[in-house]
Design a protein that fits this description.
single chain, seven-stranded mixed sheet, elongated, HET, 15 helices, Similar to Vegetative incompatibility protein HET-E-1 acc. no. Q00808, 27% strand, 23% helix, five-stranded mixed beta barrel, 3 domains, alpha+beta
Amino acid sequence: MRVVNTSTLELKDTAVSEYAILSHVWGQSEVTFQEMLGDPIKRPPSLTMKSGYRKIKNACAQALRDGFEHIWIDTCCIDKISSAELSEAINSMYLWYRDSTVCYAYLGDAFETSKWFERGWTLQELIAPQMLCFMITNGILSEKVFVTIQNLSDNGDYIAEKMSWASERVTTRIEDTVYCLMGIFGIHMPILYGQKENAFYRLQREIINSSDDQTIFAWGVNQSGYSIFSGLLASSPRNFRGCAKVRRTNTLNQFFKPDLSPYTITNIGMRIQLPLMSLPSKVTVAILDATLDGNIIGISLAKGSKPNDPEWWMREDRYKLPQGNDVLSRAKNRTIYVKETHESRQEPLARWKQLSHMIGIKIRPSCREHGYSVYDIYPPHRFRIQDWKGNKPKESIYLEYNNGDCPFGMIAFNHPTRKGSGFVVRFGLDVDNHCSADIVLEKEIGQVEGSFAHRFCLDINMDMPPGT
């Protein structure tokens, strides 16, 4: 292990039992391994006047006052010219921070607004050490605050929860959002820059090789955005925003007693065993062994385009289902294949960019006769009410999509005198351009549950506008 002597500021390659370690956000004038070589006394002013060198000097002075002979600093203790050494260091960094006696977190000149709390690499530097010393500006002793950090990675029992810690953090390079998480999940893998988002898929594959925690598939469940036709794996830690309270239940093991077959990545997608449930709208929901705020988490699956493979699917959307055996009793355990994210997004989106689509909704007379009327629509800027296909404006609505827009919409109906009797109709197109719809009663908004006996209000037809 290469360290800096706190008395002489000399680099040493030696085994040490006790050492301090520095956590900081890299600036523009950091000192490299090559610049720290040689006699410290002979270092030129062009080096010693750098802000990065002053940071090293102040950290060494603080460590020396605290009784430490050695300190490890990432900017100058790693030869980043050597790809082999850089890969080994990144894979070992979490352990180095964990095994340090104290970690000095250099926050610059402001505690509350420091970028240290926003960067991806400093997440493991917050979690791994047993003791942190937050230092302001020049590391003045009177300005530091000692805190003992309980090992958060031991408390974070669920993959989605750990991913949520990184969901708001940023890195300069896309791949570093992945590599800064390896130690938190106990993963070791080669460091390859240039992969961009594919590096996160690689990390998730490594995680599921050693864990059957299905919260890794629960991303996006608490977000308002809509994700069309993806795989089971997320494209970024950002997809796990709002997942800090996602929990594993082990309910499925007790209810279905599956054969514990491992998840397998194949050339046609991930092979996985999940309970599937069909909704009245012919939407198929896969139930995960995960909950959020007491609700079972499910994901909507769209049938793939392989005609000879009835078990080939794509992930379409995510739902929060009510807790209880009633949901599980309607599901059947099946082994399916779910196409990978980075592959499955290409075909459907390419088709959407080439076409304009229109979904026409005819409001049947029985809906108006029962006193129901439209009081809200989403997304509002894509709905138009006009005379269309022989229907009067008050009797029809259509929704038009262009250039890859997500093909779904919602219409809310209410009754002027019957409080609580409203409902929302969610409708759209699946991967094969087939129309589908589902009705959610007002008391069940936010859930996808219940057998809706009265589907009296809509007659959905699809047509293409002239000239498209």
